[in-house]
Amino acid sequence: MSLFAWKDRFAGEDSEERSRRFFVLEGITGITHLSLTSGAFLAGFVSMLGGSEQINGFIGVIPAIAAFFQLFSSLIYEGSAHRKRAIFRTALIYRILIAGLYLLPVALLPLGISLPVFMAMYMGAYAMNGLLAPAVSDWMVRLTPMAIRGQYFAGRERLAMLVSAVLTILLGFVLDHAKAGPRPAAGFLVVGGVLGVLSLLNLYSLKNVSEVDRGDAVRKYTLREVVSTPLASPNFRRMMVLFALWNLGLQVGAPFIPVYMVTRLDLSYTYMMVLTVVGTVARVSVTNMWGRLADRKSWFLAAKLSMGLLALVHFGWGFVNPGNQAVLAPLLFTANGFVWGGIGISIFNLQFLFAKSQGRILYLGTNAAVGGLFSLLSVQAGAWITKLLEGREVALLGLRFNNLQAVFLLSGLLLALCPLFITFFLETKAGEVERD
């Protein structure tokens, strides 16, 4: 029976199972929110507002940079025995900002301040998300026994990606239709309306998740303890190094891929959404496989394989040009979907293997803050490289690459270091992971 058939099954379900089903709805709305406020949608909107390639790339990595705010999450939630109300209030602010993300800047177009207003709202929204993420993740993990986490998170992500794929391709068609008309900004008003509906559904899902019995002592932490506690754990320090390396390799290239498609390859929104759906279908098709691999073998193996393959995908984008994009772009989108089916669940769960159950938000928040800091450094490096090489070409092995292709090659090389780090520095500590 479908995971959406809640009402018929609630009578026979316990509170935890019912809550896990509402977390499926939370995941569907949350992932679709991200899809509609990133990638080609984001790159097209920022370009319409007059943003340069460098500004576009920087805005694209704001969600990762805003993860720095997760550092303060434990200051808000760890000292409370009942977190649900505080989580809901933060989520309310976050979803209101997301709902107005396209609507308000479009309304302000005549005043010429749309781009800075959009950037402020975008940063504010994902700062709120940064405060939320560790607490919501911990809440969901506490409701999900270790034995079923792989399949549960895989199934949750599969449904979320399916819904996201349908909406993105439909809205991509809407944007293309509006772009061909006299009012190209009108398409984003429709997207904004969809974001508003999704915000209401997201808040409804959180409202219906049960308050969890934390089962550990409630205590308040100082900011110094928030930082020092995870650093005091040798194993978790290794996890933080992996996150730094991962974000360094990912964000130097990833934010510029949709920019490259919009500004250099000049692809239509509909075509880009079709490619996105192709990647999503690939991701949905293999997510259960990655979950089973993690449950039967290890999260280490799932992470190594998926990260290593993503390195090849990013490196491959360095060879895409207008002459071959009809062949390479679909192949790379399909491969990207395949590998993110593993990365999406493995990188999330790796943290929980080394984070202590008591005060776990401290570990998740500090780790995310490290990732956010390195994301900022990485996208700045990528923007600097694209600016330095603007109008120039880099010759390598008899081939010539433009500035954006160069950062894709660099991104692939850096990402290839991640599976090596897991093999030599994390997997050797597999016997010391948390078992809760």
Classify the helix fraction into a percent range. Answer: over 70%
CATH architecture: Up-down Bundle
- CATH-level-4 superfamily name: MFS general substrate transporter like domains
- In total, the number of domains comes to 1
- Unreliable residue runs: 1-12
Question: Biggest sheet: strands side by side, in what order?
Answer: 1-2
Principal-axes shape call: globular
Straight-line distance between termini: 29 Å
Secondary structural class: mainly alpha
**The CATH class:** Mainly Alpha
Outline the fold blueprint.
Blueprint: H1 6-9, H2 15-36, H3 39-48, H4 53-60, H5 62-65, H6 73-77, H7 84-99, H8 103-107, H9 114-142, H10 149-179, H11 186-207, H12 223-231, H13 234-251, H14 256-263, H15 269-296, H16 299-317, H17 325-354, H18 360-388, E1 394-396, E2 399-401, H19 403-415, H20 417-426
Antiparallel strand pairs: 1-2
Helix pairs in contact: 2-10, 2-11, 3-4, 3-14, 4-18, 7-9, 7-11, 9-18, 10-11, 10-15, 12-18, 13-18, 13-19, 13-20, 15-16, 15-17, 16-17, 16-19, 16-20, 18-19
